[in-house]
Amino acid sequence: MSVSSFSEYTVVDVANVTKIDPDIPPDRACLLSC
Fold first, then answer.
1. DSSP label at 20?
2. DSSP label of 32
């Protein structure tokens, strides 16, 4: 299909969520995402 999109909100299972320190700059935190 080759389809992609962006979303403001998403629903995930609690087992797939990691809390990130709010003091980490966004450009560093994004390296830990998908």
1. -
2. G
Phi-psi region of 3 (alpha: psi -120 to 50; beta: other; left: phi over 0): beta
Alpha-carbon gap, residue 14 to 3, rounded angstroms = 26
31 to 11, 15, 20: CA distances (angstroms): 20, 19, 12
pLDDT tens digits, one per residue of 1-29 = 788 888 888 888 999 888 889 998 888 87
Q: What is the pTM of this model?
A: 0.36
Which pLDDT score, from 0 to 100, does residue 13 have?
92
